[in-house]
Task: inverse folding
């Protein structure tokens, strides 16, 4: 069976060469193939070798690729993956072992509408390029915070922006999607056409088709105030008190977006607190936002504060998670940010450090990203994330790790899973637990789409049955997080 699958995949890659031409299909050993491998965010994804990369440059070419991949003439490929920016580190999500990887990076158009109220984006566009196109017009979108991340994956997984407390999830700001379905048809999904698909793509990830265009709402935006501050770990008690206080709905400032994190780096033998504080409306007189006074008053040994545009800020963010520099892992959970719960999460992470300190090149981080009601509630009925019926602020808790050697993969995965289990046990004990898992931060053992809740999953299952009755984007596109079967 494996030999037959390899033969089918080889035949498909040859057929793709005939369909698209040699400049759009790369095979092992070629310079283009090797460049594609090394362009991924995480080294463990670069370790995956597909039989070929197919790089269509237009929606009709994507449609032709889908038709070929599902044709009975050549037989189905062993596995297919869809890549936009290549930032999803979960193995198989954006690169297909021994299969066909459909690389959408050439679909990178950025087109501002005539009235400047929307921008049409190819899924392969990178956020830093989107901002570079919009900043000269005094406009922005609620897009990604890391410049090299692709538009497609972030948006379909939800998407968190510096502007999300005021604008909502990135997916909530989409007014239309162009999608290639499993049968090769190219359709529009918006508030008038294919409304169920429009709903499902907002959080449904790669399960429903290949998105070839996303229209996002623009808004007026100038420079932002931003501070990147490193504090000694001795400030942890005050950090936690501050997060608990300022994230309360009655205290939250919707122009503020921040991440409070704790990090250990083996190369320095150093454990620190890091605050990344953004504010969308910097004061004309150059004063710091009062919302962040408590953080700014804490002792620090590094404080870089600037007023800058989104292009510069997104490019600056690249240094936090440099692509191709390491093996990476994310894992996540969600809870109410009570002081006791924040402390329990920190304690679980802190107590795990002795067990991982010997891993070569390890950085071991935990961060809190607030989800105030202004972010998740207004669009809750219009997306697939399942966050209706909630009140109060939540925090997305992100465990993020980097390390050097594949030999340590199992140890890192096991230690990370143990930390998440301990945090979730504490959340249940303290009455702070929320089942929601942010898909873009999910680990392989987690099930984000099931976490959306029974009703959202039921709608997604019905939608899949309509637009993909043969299960192409479930059985052929196996990587990533799937809509549950039952």
Result:
């Amino acid at each position: 069976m494996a030999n037959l699958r390899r033969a089918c995949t080889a035949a498909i890659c040859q057929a793709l060469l005939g369909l698209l031409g040699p400049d759009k299909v790369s095979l092992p050993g070629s310079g283009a193939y090797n460049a594609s491998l090394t362009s991924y965010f995480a080294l463990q994804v670069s370790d995956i070798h597909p039989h070929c990369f197919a790089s269509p440059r237009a929606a009709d070419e994507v449609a032709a690729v889908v038709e070929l991949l599902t044709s009975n003439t050549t037989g189905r490929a062993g596995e297919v993956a869809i890549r936009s920016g290549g930032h999803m580190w979960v193995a198989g999500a954006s690169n297909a072992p021994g299969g066909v990887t459909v690389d959408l990076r050439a679909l990178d158009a950025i087109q501002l509408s005539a009235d400047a109220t929307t921008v049409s984006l190819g899924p392969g566009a990178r956020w830093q390029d989107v901002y570079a196109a919009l900043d000269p017009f005094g406009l922005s979108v609620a897009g990604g915070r890391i410049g090299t991340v692709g538009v497609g994956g972030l948006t379909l997984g939800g998407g968190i922006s510096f502007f999300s407390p005021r604008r909502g999830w990135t997916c909530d700001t989409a007014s239309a999607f162009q999608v290639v379905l499993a049968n090769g048809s190219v359709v529009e999904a918006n508030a008038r056409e294919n409304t169920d698909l429009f709903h499902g793509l907002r959080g449904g990830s790669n399960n429903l088709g290949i998105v070839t265009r996303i229209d996002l709402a623009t808004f007026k935006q100038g420079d932002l105030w931003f501070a990147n501050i490193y504090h000694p770990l001795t400030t942890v008690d005050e950090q936690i008190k501050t997060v608990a206080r300022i994230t309360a709905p009655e205290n939250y400032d919707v122009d503020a977006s921040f991440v409070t994190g704790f990090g250990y780096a083996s190369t320095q033998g150093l454990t620190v607190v890091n605050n990344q504080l953004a504010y969308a409306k910097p004061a004309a007189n150059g004063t710091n936002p009062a919302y962040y006074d408590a953080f700014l008053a804490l002792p620090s040994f590094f404080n870089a504060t600037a007023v800058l545009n989104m292009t510069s800020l997104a490019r600056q963010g690249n240094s936090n998670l440099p692509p191709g520099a390491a093996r990476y892992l994310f894992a996540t959970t969600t809870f109410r940010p009570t002081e006791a719960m924040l402390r329990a999460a920190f304690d679980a992470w802190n107590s795990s450090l002795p067990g991982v300190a010997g891993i070569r090149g390890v950085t071991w981080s935990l961060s809190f990203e607030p989800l105030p009601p202004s972010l998740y509630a207004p669009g809750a009925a219009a997306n697939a994330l399942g966050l209706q019926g909630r009140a109060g602020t939540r925090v997305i808790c992100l465990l993020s790790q980097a390390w050097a050697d594949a030999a340590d993969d199992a140890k890192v995965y096991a230690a990370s899973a143990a930390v998440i289990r301990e945090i979730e046990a504490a959340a249940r004990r303290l009455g702070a637990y929320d089942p929601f898992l942010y898909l873009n931060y999910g680990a392989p053992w987690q099930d984000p789409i099931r976490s959306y809740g029974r009703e959202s999953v039921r709608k997604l299952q019905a939608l899949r049955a309509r637009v993909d009755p043969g299960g192409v984007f479930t059985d052929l596109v196996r990587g990533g997080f799937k809509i549950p079967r039952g």
About this structure: The chain has a mean pLDDT of 96. The chain has three domains: 2-103, 110-220, 224-308+326-449. The two ends are 27 Å apart (CA to CA).
